[in-house]
Amino acid sequence: MIPLLAKLEMLREEASREIKRISSVADTAAFRIKYLGRKGEITACLRELPSVPIELRPQVGAKANSLKLELENAIDEKQKAFAPWQGPKTRLDLTLPGRSRFLGKKHPITRTIEDIISIFYGLGFSVAEGPNVETDYYNFDALNTPADHPARDINDTFYVEKGICLRTHTSPVQIRVMERQKPPVRIIAPGRCYRKDTADASHSPNFFQTEGLYVDAGVTFADLKGVINTFALRMFGKDVQVRFRPHFFPFTEPSVEYDFSCVICGGKGCRTCKNSGWIEISGAGMVDPAVLKAVGYDSEKYSGYAFGMGVDRITMLRYRVSDIRYLYDNDLRVLNNL
Ligand code: DAH
Q1: Dihedrals φ, ψ of 284, to 5°?
Q2: 285 Cα nearest atom in ligand 1
C-alpha cells in the first residue's frame, strides 16, 4: 500500500468519527480548519504528492480530492443544521388585527332587474332575451318603423355595419319571441340598449330597458293599465300613482307614455321630477296590427299590449341616485352605498 493512500484512508475514518460528535457551529469551524484549512491534514497530504512516484500520483490525487469533497459536503450539512432561521423575512405576527375581507354585492341595476323579474313572474310572465347586436329588420322594420324615421339616423343609432346596429331598445325581442311561438305570449325582456347620446345626468349611451308583451285573444288596454298599476304598487309601495298620456310609437296603436308619481317628494314637486310631481317611466300601447302581421299572427283573432320600462330610471328612484352616470362609472365609493 502506498503510504499516502493509507494515510488518507485513516483520515477518512477519523473524520467520519469526529463528524458524528460535532454539536455546534464552533465545532464545525474547528473541524474545517483541522482537515481543510491551509495547514490542515488533507492539505498536508496534497503537499506530499510530488514525492509519490509519478505513475501513482493520479490515484492518490483522486483519493485526496474525493475525500476533500466528502468533507466539504459534510461541513455544509452541519452548517445548515446549526444555521439560524432563514425563512421569509416577513414573519407571521399573530398579535396583529385580522384583515377584513372585501365583500362584493350585486350592482343596483342588477338588483332592480331581479326585482322586476320577480314581480312579473308573479303576474304570469316569463323572461325572454335577444341579442344586443341587431339587424335593422328586428330593431326597426318589423316594429313598423319607416325607413325615414329619425331614430334610424346614424347620429342616433350605433351601426356596426350597414343594416346591423346595437339595439336602441328591447322591443326587437317582441318580434323574436313572436316569430318563435304562437299566442298566448306573455314575456318580459330585460336588457342593455344603446343610443348615440352624450352622457349627462339623465342620459347614457348604454342603458337598460325591460320590454313587456302580452298577446292573446281578447287582450285589452284595461289589461295593460292593470298590469302597469300592479307593477308600480309592488315596486314602489301603495302610495304610488300611475298616469297614462297619449303618445305615438310606430309599433303600438293607440300608444301612451306612462308616469309614476314622484317617489322622492310624494308627488308634491321636487328637483328630481322637475316640480311636476311625475316621473316618466316609458311608453306602452296596444300592439299595432302591422307588427302582428310581420310575425304572421292573425290580427283579427289576437290582440296584445306592449310596454317599455326604463330600468335605470327605476333604479335611480329606488336608490335616490340623482345622476345616471353614477350607475355606470363603477366608483365603489358610490356603489358600496347603494
Ligand atoms: N321602445 C320604446 C323606447 O325605446 C319604448 C316602448 C314604447 C316600448 C311603447 C313598447 C311600447 O313596447 O309599446 O322608447
Answers
A1: -165, 180
A2: 13
The stretches in the chain having pLDDT less than 50 are none
Any ligand 1 atom below 6 A from CB of 171: yes
**Is 306's C-beta closer than 6 angstroms to any atom of ligand 1?**
yes
pLDDT tens-digit readout, 91-112: 778 888 888 888 889 999 999 9
For ligand 1, atom 12, the nearest C-alpha belongs to: 307
Ligand 1 atom with the smallest distance to the CA of 211 is 12
One-letter amino acid for residue 328 of the chain: Y
Question: 172 CB under 6 A from ligand 1?
Answer: no
Atom of ligand 1 nearest to the CA of 171: 1
What's the chain look like in SS3?
A: CCHHHHHHHHHHHHHHHHHHHCCCHHHHHHHHHHHHCCCCHHHHHHHCHHHCCCCCHHHHHHHHHHHHHHHHHHHHHHHHHHCCCCCCCCCCCCCCCCCCCCCCCCCHHHHHHHHHHHHHHHCCCEECCCCCEEEHHHHCHHHCCCCCCHHHCCCCCCEEECCEEECCCCCHHHHHHHHHCCCCEEEEEEEEEECCCCCECCECCEEEEEEEEEEECCCCHHHHHHHHHHHHHHHHCCCCCEEEEEEEECCEEEEEEEEEECCCCCCCCCCCCCCCCEEEEEEEEEECHHHHHHCCCCCCCCEEEEECCEHHHHHHHHHCCCCCHHHHCCCHHHHCCC
**Is the CB of 145 within 6 Å of ligand 1?**
no
Decide: 169 in ligand 1 pocket, CB within 6 A: yes
Question: Considering the entire predicted model, what is its pTM?
Answer: 0.72
pLDDT at position 85 is 67
